[in-house]
Design brief:
Elements (H helix, E strand, L loop, with lengths): L13 E2 L14 H11 L2 H11 L6 H5 L4 H10 L2 E2 L7 H16 L5 H18 L7
Parallel strand pairs: 1-2
Helix pairs in contact: 5-6
């Protein structure tokens, strides 16, 4: 686990996302769900969930009290995370990037050509949906 690469003079940044707890608006058991969330908001249960299922915690205390070098490395990376840009067509944009990264990794395109094509196609997607400020 290492920080994401960066351009010279830039900052390391990973994106946030993934596992989270929530209570469905339609839940018939909101009080029980809230009690569960309060329980899970403690390092002990978070550590048990990690040990049994590999789910990384969102709790700062989970990482600060850990003696595991991997958890310390993950915590270092988490210090520079940013929210993913709000892209309504995220699934389409993600598909574009995945296709071109795959093309670069399998030597069907050079990395530079693949990323240029991915950026062009993503800009077209965003332009079609009124989001010209795409990457």
């Amino acid at each position: 686990m290492v920080p994401m690469p960066r351009a010279p003079g830039g900052q390391h940044a990973s994106t946030l996302g993934g596992w989270g707890f929530a209570i469905a608006k339609s839940s018939a058991h909101k009080d029980a769900a809230w009690k569960f969330l309060e329980f899970m908001a403690n390092p002990g249960p978070a550590e048990q969930l990690y040990e049994s299922a590999g789910v990384q915690s969102a709790l700062k205390a989970f990482y600060e009290k850990s003696n595991d070098p991997m958890q310390k490395a993950i915590y270092t990376v988490l210090q520079t995370t940013l929210p993913r840009p709000p892209v309504p067509q995220y699934a389409q944009a993600s598909d574009i990037l995945q296709r071109y990264v795959s093309a670069a990794l399998t030597n069907r395109m050079t990395p530079k050509a693949a990323l240029t094509a991915a950026a062009t196609e993503t800009r077209l997607l965003m332009g079609r949906h009124g989001m010209e400020s795409a990457p």
